[in-house]
Amino acid sequence: MSLPQDFLTQLEQYSELSNREKAVFLEIFSSGKSRVQVTQALNISDSNLSSCLTGIYKKFSINGSGPVKETRLREYLEKRYSQQKDYFFKQKTVETYIADFIYNLRDAHIEAKELELDSEAILKSIEAQNGLVVERAKGIYSFSHLTFQEYFSAREIVANSAWNSLVKDITERRWQEVFLLTVSMMRKADDLVLLMKDKIDVIISNDEYLQAFLVKIYEKSLSIKSRLSLSTIRSFYFEHLLFFGSDYVLDSLNYNLASALGFNLSSMELEEELFLDSCLTDIIEISNSNRHEALTWILELNIYIQPELRKALQDLQEEIIQLESQTNWEDGRDNLPPECEIKLRNLAIKYRKICYKLELSDYQHQLLSYYYEANNLLLDCLNSDCYVSREVRQEIENNLMLPIREFKNSQLQ
Questions:
Q1: What is the DSSP letter of 141?
Q2: In this predicted model, what pLDDT tens digit does every residue of 189-222 receive, in sequence order?
Q3: What is the DSSP code string of 334-390?
Q4: How many angstroms separate the CA atoms of 73 and 79, rounded?
Q5: How far apart are the C-alpha atoms of 60 and 212, rounded to whole Å?
Q6: Which residue in 57, 51, 50 sits closest to 75, CA to CA?
Q7: What does the alpha-carbon distance between residue 44 and residue 312 come to, in Å, rounded to a whole number?
Q8: Cα distances (Å, whole numbers) of residue 387 to 111, 176, 293
Q9: Cβ-contact 158, 182 below 8 angstroms
Q10: What is the 3-state secondary structure (H, E, C) of 193-217?
Q11: Beta-bridge mates of residue 133
Q12: Could you read off the pLDDT of 244-272 as tens digits, one per residue?
């Protein structure tokens, strides 16, 4: 589906794309051209095209990797286009609002014709002098910048205490700034953040496989000896296992959730078990690491490793050395033999409960993406300048990333 260029031009202005990114964005999504056709039309190389697309995906907050990103961005744009009535309004509609306001002013002219002329003049004055609204086409207006619309939306929500209406859109990226503005405007944001937490829990509450995934993370967190809170540990492993265990849900591993709860990536070595799991995962999952040397390095670390696991890793190391001596295995210093890599993965799964693969449907991918982004939004709200009572903040943080069964147990207690 090709989208109207005027619509795309407005979106790219909001997203602050570079000139080259704008050209690529319009060529691909307004004309439906292939990559080859775009490179020819813009006289750029395929690598330059890929670089531009990476920037576009980032500015539109599109997660994933490979062709999935383009599909997700196209779906997002098509959805925005279908919802453009939320961004554009007819001149007559806004003039009616202005006329209604004037009608209730003291000593105002209330004759229909005069109200019509006054409302038209005021709208033109707002456009010319304040720049708040812009005429996008004949008789069609929008706010000059999305920020104005988000601000006034938040004010309306606060004025009417419309929290339930707002949380219905918690999985919509276009409402994220409205959430942040709304909690900052509220005198006390307890009711809204609690509703957000409830809505987030519902996202994956009915999917048994995803609930089982949360149960694994919960049980893993209970086995970890750490100074970090259980919710921080759960968040760490949720992001870690999701990034390495599935394709396209997360396109980078920044530990945003765990960091928002106090985790410091630069000092992860102080958390021995998290550090061990991270190092083992790197050996197994990151193909450009020097896996053989990394395994030796792990065994030499002055950290606690379960005796059974340490013995199994030492035996595996001996097996690798023997294989090297028996074969002409040229790249043995950088890679593990396939059979040894499988054994190492099985050891990580058995003893550390990591490095297993998630078998997710496209729908489950989407649910987890919604769940992750909504939790990020909730923590952004809690860490903003809004006022939330200590009790509510603690309740929410304690129950983050909990499977439904444990959340119900905590309520009973």
A1: E
A2: 999 999 999 999 999 999 999 999 999 999 999 9
A3: TS--HHHHHHHHHHIIIII--SPPP---HHHHHHHHHHHHHHHHHHHHHTTT----H
A4: 10
A5: 31
A6: 57
A7: 52
A8: 47, 18, 50
A9: yes
A10: HHHHHHHHHHHCCCCHHHHHHHHHH
A11: 143
A12: 999 767 878 999 999 999 999 999 988 99
Q: Which amino acid belongs to residue 276? A: L
Q: What is the pTM of this model?
A: 0.77
Longest dimension (CA), the chain: 100
Sign of CA dihedral 103, 109, 113, 118: negative
pLDDT at 115: 80
Residues 174 and 151: their CA atoms lie apart, in Å, by 13
Q: State which amino acid sits at residue 252.
A: S
- The alpha carbon dihedral of 375, 380, 383, 385 has a sign of negative
**DSSP-derived pairing of the beta strands 140-143 and 133-137:** antiparallel
CB count within 10 Å of CB 76 equals 17
Question: Cα torsion at 55, 60, 65, 71 (round to 10°)?
Answer: -120
Residue 237 has pLDDT above 90, yes or no: yes
Here the contacts of 259-268 (C-beta below 8 Å, separation 24 or greater) are: 260/235, 260/376, 260/379, 260/380, 260/382, 260/383, 261/228, 261/229, 261/231, 261/232, 261/235, 261/379, 261/397, 261/400, 262/228, 262/229, 262/232, 263/228, 263/232, 263/235, 263/236
Confirm if 185 and 381 have CB atoms less than 8 A apart.
no
- What is the C-alpha to C-alpha distance for residues 132 and 123, in angstroms, rounded to an integer? 10
Q: How far apart are CA 197 and CA 396, in angstroms?
A: 7
Token readout for 218 is 């919960």
pLDDT at 17: 85
Six-digit token string for 73: 């961005």
Joined tokens for residue 412: 């009973």
| Structure-token match 């970090």, residue found | 228
Q: What is the mean pLDDT of the chain?
A: 87
What count of other Cβ atoms lies within 10 Å of the Cβ of residue 36? 10
| Cβ contact 397:240 at 8 Å | no
- Segment (H or E) for 134: strand 133-137
At a CB cut-off of 8 Å and minimum separation 6, what does 135 contact?
91, 127, 141
What residues have CB less than 8 Å from 334, skipping those under 6 apart?
290, 291, 292
Please list the residues that pair with 135 across neighbouring strands: 141
Residues 100 and 89: their CA atoms lie apart, in Å, by: 17
